[in-house]
Specification:
The structure holds 2 protein chains of 2 kinds. Chain A contains 12 helices and 2 strands. Chain A is mainly alpha-helical. Classes of the chains: A mainly alpha, B alpha+beta.
């Protein structure tokens, strides 16, 4: 057998090592998880490698699972929308700052990513608790009389997830803002457009790709987040990721956990690819 | 009354004076170029007229009315940017119609005017094209149509041709000039390209370090530069050292020329390479040694060294013998072809 590098086989040889790593660390475990979701399980017999659809039937028919998936995607959508509402103006302001200020504030923006997820979430737990800084401050200001419920609620999980995921939105939008022609706002201004019109008609349509890629990242990370919902939401407020964890490590029903995990992955892929297609078609001109 | 008046216009950035007490009057329908090296304040001047940069001192008046206090989106000026700044997510027609839309022009009227503007710039049939699918020259035309369709009081051009290749630039120069003539819009062009300024303008304003060096028709500025800076910035020129006798005549080597207004003592003269000729035998002249020659097709460019300084001269490729390297020639020129420069060393 000849090992000569030809034009035909060089792409395979060059990508081979990375493909092997990808195959070994991602594709095979993923395939095994999907396979596992079709296995049988019983309280006393454990995992039985027999093909069955009962895990999937359970996931799709039991309203308990439906509620958890609904909550997961509700949280993810709220986090994504809030990230757009806060992150897009923030990126715009960041883009207009003087370079020295901009680098300082960029550090502030990506700050949450520099802190360990557990430390950051526990910090939030201290802030959001019924005797936490936020509630005590609001009470001291006379705005509320009884503490607001943040811990073990969706509100708390959403707040914490926005904090950690918003950098992805800001960086994605900022990247697309940097591709704008620096004179484009002046051009619109000279043609008689107001600031608001410029934003709506000129800037926004051009940064849709950035908002979209930011949204996809934020949405998938929010929907698959584990540490924040586990600490802030606790055992009472389960989401898909903590559900899968519990099935694996508490109930020890691995096949059911695998079905939950596979369904989460499948749903995420479908949603992100679908929305991507939709918006890409709508804004075809900006995506070139 | 002048159409556009800049009155003592001043702009400082920190300690740096970008535009220093600039005065300029532009007549209706005139094509005026602001010409100068980068950092001379020409772009800042344009941006103050457009309203993108605040004015520190002085005024801008359009038809007698103050322009400084008017918001930039209410000034109604047409601007073509160096980068064109087209809206990439809109078609050509949408780009051009944008300004009309902002003015609440009715849809049928808008369509009619957009079509007319596209025809004016030679883009008929491109209505549904997106800018990214067009060449630089075509994008330039869209930008021009977009600026002209709103019937602006002033057309401001910010280095509009600098992103085009040389051949296309020349074509567009002719076309731009012809379109401006036919529309009759008062136009201000900012450029660092002397050829562009000379080819397009009715008048050139030569700027340097925030100040106006000279204002005049292209041939006037070229032939009678008011300063050594203007002489060297517009085309090639020779700055020769001479000595005035205080009675209106100047000696440059053996050459003595009557130059009314010349003072006494050392002074400087600007003479264009094409105005230097080789003196006939017996005629007085400036002795110069030819150092090198470059053939340019229609002419030769000769570099030479004389007692009055290094100089360049041009010899037409008309069949006559051309001096070779090392040869010594005697040069002469007419007093009318020499511009007396105010004191100070040439840049």
């Amino acid at each position: 057998m000849s090992l000569a590098v030809t034009e035909r086989n060089s792409p395979f040889l060059l990508t081979g090592p990375a493909l092997l790593v990808f195959l070994g660390l991602v594709i095979i475990p993923l395939g095994m998880t999907v396979l596992l979701s079709f296995y049988d399980w019983g309280q006393y017999k454990g995992i039985v490698p027999e093909f069955t659809l009962k895990n999937w039937v359970e996931v799709f028919t039991d309203s308990y699972f439906f509620e958890i998936f609904l909550r997961t995607f509700r949280i993810a959508i709220l986090v994504t929308l809030a990230s757009i509402l806060i992150g897009v103006p923030e990126a715009y302001i960041l883009n207009r700052m003087a370079p020295a200020w901009r680098s300082a504030f960029l550090l502030v923006v990506i700050g949450p990513l520099l802190v360990s997820v557990v430390a950051r979430t526990l910090g939030w737990a201290l802030l959001l608790g019924s005797t936490g800084l936020v509630n005590q401050g609001l009470i001291a200001l006379g705005l509320i009389t009884t503490p607001l419920e943040f811990m073990f609620t969706e509100t708390g999980v959403v707040i914490v997830l926005i904090h950690v995921l918003i950098p992805f939105m800001i960086l994605a939008v900022w990247a697309s803002l940097q591709r704008l022609d620096p004179q484009i706002e002046n051009a619109a201004l000279s043609l008689g457009a107001s600031r608001l019109t410029i934003w709506r008609r000129v800037i926004l349509p051009q940064i849709v790709p950035g908002i979209l890629s930011g949204s996809i990242i934020v949405f998938s990370l929010a929907a698959s987040a584990f540490a924040s919902p586990a600490i802030i939401g606790g055992r009472r407020l389960k989401v898909a990721a903590t559900l899968a964890y519990d099935e694996f490590l508490n109930t020890l029903n691995w096949p059911l956990g695998a079905a939950v995990a596979s369904l989460l992955l499948l749903a995420l892929v479908l949603i992100t690819v679908g929305s991507n297609r939709l918006i890409e078609r709508r804004y075809a001109q900006v995506f070139e | 009354m002048s159409h556009l008046v800049l009155d003592g216009l001043t702009k400082r950035f920190g300690g740096f004076t970008a535009v220093d007490a600039m005065n300029l009057s532009v007549e209706r329908g005139e094509f005026v170029s602001l010409l100068g090296p980068s950092g001379c304040g020409k772009t800042t001047t344009l941006q103050m007229i457009a309203g993108f940069v605040d004015v520190d001192r002085g005024g801008i008046r359009l038809d007698g009315a103050d322009l400084v206090s008017v918001a930039p989106n209410k000034r109604g000026l047409g601007i073509v940017f160096q980068s064109y700044a087209l809206f990439p997510h809109m078609t050509v027609a949408e780009n051009i119609a944008f300004g009309l839309e902002m003015r609440d022009v009715s849809k049928p009227d808008r369509d009619k005017r957009t079509l007319a503007a596209m025809e004016l710039v030679g883009l008929k049939g491109f209505a549904d094209r997106y800018p990214r699918r067009m060449s630089g020259g075509q994008q330039q035309r869209v930008a021009l149509a977009r600026a002209l369709v709103i019937k602006p009081a002033l057309l401001l051009l910010d280095e509009p041709l600098s992103n085009l290749d040389a051949k296309l630039r020349e074509e567009m120069q002719g076309e731009l000039r012809q379109i401006q003539r036919s529309v009759g819009t008062t136009t201000i062009l900012v450029t660092h390209d002397q050829h562009e300024a000379m080819a397009l303008s009715d008048r050139i304003v030569v700027m340097n370090q925030g100040r106006i060096e000279q204002i005049g028709a292209p041939d006037q500025v070229y032939d009678r530069p008011a300063s050594a800076f203007v002489a060297s910035f517009l085309g090639k020129t020779n700055v020769l050292a001479g000595t005035g006798d205080g009675q209106g005549s100047v000696a440059i080597g053996d050459l003595v020329l009557p130059l009314p207004g010349a003072g006494k003592g050392p002074l400087q003269l600007a003479v264009r390479p094409e105005r230097l000729s080789i003196a006939a035998a017996g005629e007085p002249g400036l002795e110069a040694r030819i150092l090198g020659r470059v053939f340019q097709g229609t002419h030769w460019l000769l570099s030479a060294q004389s007692a009055a300084g290094a100089l360049t001269l041009m010899r037409g490729n008309d069949g006559a013998a051309v001096p070779t390297e090392g040869e010594t020639v005697r040069l002469r020129f007419n007093a009318a072809d020499a511009a007396l420069l105010p004191g100070g060393a040439a840049p």
